[in-house]
Structures are given as structure tokens and as C-alpha cells.
């Protein structure tokens, strides 16, 4: 599969008056053409920071301190202002976490589509913009006649569909979806994801899918990366990530989700609390919460190593414990 996005050793820091906190530490992954790559982990692990880095939407005090982000072979971090404007939405678009906050509450939906289309000069006038808006709304299952309504006149699921339609407006090759089903009930979640899947097969774009819901991601992604405390700790095919995890943190996440089928089993949470990134200890960042950790884990930083079809950042990947 030809790589579309290549992220290599990405580091993103948040600067404070006294020091800096590294929210993303040497994260590397690729997304192929037409692939859905999932990024999962607890809240605060750095998922959204990676998304904002890929789209270069981060604002101070966040800075990309080192690393590389290549899109179709072109270095994103070297793009000037004009090229960056074309890159955003033209090459890579984003579906933000809260649809109601992403849409302007005082502008009709049609105006919000028109602003996007005319800013990127893909239409010449209001009439062309409305015609394109009608096509996009129809694409996500909303009647074009609703384009003159305000965001508050739509349900949560319909607002999310509108945001997805705006993200598709310029026919991007990659869509970053940051918690696209947050605050929606499970039925609407499934409807939205099924529609995204159908659109992806029809239009052929790639997806960086970000969520803390690993069970939801398994159904939707081709490969999944697991993040913990700003680091990528495991990458694996979605069909294997829960059934044969190689990192103890991934195993812990799997235990914390209820099974849809089969016998009922008690849920087991991961003990302890997420790492304080302003006080990172020596060794493995997960060691304090890991049931398998020993002195080596607490003293030496593990590398991301290949374990069969997985990558795992662990001195003792779970395969070795069998």
C-alpha cells in the first residue's frame, strides 16, 4: 500500500512560563492510500495533539519541536502560508470533536458551506456554492432544502453529518476525524460510522480516526495505534489488537471494555492514574501501572520493536509471557 501520510519522530511541546511539557514524544506512523488508521488511548494521551500537528492547526503555547510530517512525499512542516492554506481542506480536512462548536450558531448552514468553497476558490459565485452544498448534503443523507436552516435546528447526528459534508467539500485525500461520535447515542454512532465507511469506499479517501473507544475503532479501522502518555506503545491490525495484544497497556484497555457477544465477564480497570507529563520518570512510562514491570522496565526506556505483525514499545512483549 502506497503511503499517503508519513509521520516520523514527531515531538510536540507545550511551553509554560517556567518549563516545557512534551505532550507527544517521537511518534511515528504511516497511513496508506484508502486506509483507515485508528489512534486510541486514554484522555490526555496526546491523540488530538497529534491530529492538530498533522493539520498544523496547533496554536501557542504548543509547538512542533522536532520530527517530520510528509504528505504524498511533501514535507508539511516546510509549507509556506499559501501552500498551507491549500493543504488544509484541499489535501487534508478535519472533523472536529464537537459538531455544535465547529458550526457557527448564528450563520445558516448554506453560508458556512459557501464560505469554505469560496475561500478555496472552487466556486465562483453564490449560485455555484448552493449547488455544491446541495450535492454535499445529499451525499450525507440530508435534504438539500435544509441548507437554509441554522445549526440549532438540526439534531446532534445531523450536525455531525453536516460537519462531515463540509470536510468533504474540497475532495481531500485524507480526513482527520477527532472523536467524531462523541456525545451521540450508540445507535446514531453506528449510523454515522456506517455512512463514513460508505463514503470512504465511494470516494477513496484515507482516514485518521481518533477516539478513546477502542471497541468502536476495531470495527472501523484497518490498523490501530495505541498511545500512552504521549508515546505510541503499540501498532497492530485491527483484527488482532484486542485478541492478541503485545503491550500490557493494550491488554488493560481490552479488559476495560464489555464484550458484546459471549459470556459476561467482569470489567477490570487499569490501576493507578495516567502519567504526569511534567514529571516523567526513567524507564517505561507505563511501568508504575504495569503488573509485569520489573527493575529493567523502571530503569530503561523501551524501543518500539517488531513482534510478529505488531509493533510494541515493551521490553517483554506479551508473546514472551505466554
Report the count of strand segments.
12
- Give the strand content: 15-25%
Helix content: 25-40%
How do the strands of the widest beta sheet line up side by side? 6-7-8-3-9-10-12-11
Over the alpha carbons, how many angstroms does the gyration radius reach? Answer: 21 Å
CA-CA gap between termini:
32 Å
Uncertain ranges: none
Describe the main β-sheet briefly: 8 strands, mixed
Number of helices: 10
Structural class label: alpha/beta
The SSE order reads EEEHEEHEHHHHEHEHEEHHEE
> What average pLDDT do the residues reach?
92
Shape: globular
Description:
The two termini are 32 Å apart. This protein has helices spanning 47-54, 81-91, 99-102, 109-119, 126-139, 156-167, 186-203, 214-220, 248-255, 295-299, and strands at residues 3-15, 20-32, 36-40, 62-71, 74-75, 92-95, 174-178, 206-211, 223-228, 231-237, 304-307, 310-313. 30% of the residues lie in helices and 25% in strands. Helix 6 (156-167) packs parallel to helix 7. It has a domain at 245-322. The strands form 2 sheets. The protein has an 8-stranded mixed β-sheet, with helices on both faces. It has a 4-stranded antiparallel β-sheet with strand order 2-1-4-5, with helices on one face. The protein is globular, with a radius of gyration of 21 Å.
